[in-house]
Amino acid sequence: MATYQVEKRRRWGPVWSTSLLFKPAVVVTGSNALREAFREEARKETSAFFPPHHQRLFGPNSILTSSGKKHDIIRNMVSQALTPKALSGYTPFIEKAIEDFVATCKSKGTFSMAEELREFLVLVSLRVLLGRPSSNQEVKEWLQDVNLW
């Protein structure tokens, strides 16, 4: 803890109020106070704090902009795909996709890198998420969704 935090804790105990980025905030220190705070907060409906433009960018169902039970459900689903074992299974496909992407870019000469990367991201993401190559229709639909961002 910073010196001022040590002083505040000595003076006010494990919980005190302050200001953070010009907004009121509460500081909770110590394992017992944190445990109690987490218990209390778990009972409340909460929402992740992101500026409105981030919420529009990531969408209402994003793991980044959700919280509480909704966040936990999404996190549990996503975490299964991000275990070391799962990630190692994606490596051969991703390496091949990168080789194909670079070869395609070389053969095109002049092109829009942003457009090519967007399509590449959708193709790789769909393959990882679905566990199989995607149909042209699926890719087209996802690209339209990405265009909305």
| DSSP helix fraction | 55-70%
| Biggest pleated-sheet summary | 2 strands, antiparallel
Structural class: mainly alpha
* C-alpha termini separation: 40 Å
Mean pLDDT: 81
Taking all Cα atoms into account, the compactness measure Rg is 23 Å
Please give a structural write-up.
α5 packs antiparallel against α6 and α6 packs across α7 (136-148). This protein has a two-stranded antiparallel sheet with strand order 1-2. It has 149 residues and is mostly helical. It has helices at residues 3-12, 31-42, 52-58, 68-81, 84-108, 113-130, 136-148, and strands at 15-20, 23-28. The mean pLDDT is 81.
Summary?
With 149 residues, the chain is mainly alpha-helical.
Summarize the topology.
Layout: H1 3-12, E1 15-20, E2 23-28, H2 31-42, H3 52-58, H4 68-81, H5 84-108, H6 113-130, H7 136-148
Antiparallel strand pairs: 1-2
Helix pairs in contact: 5-6, 6-7
What are its keywords?
149 residues; mainly alpha
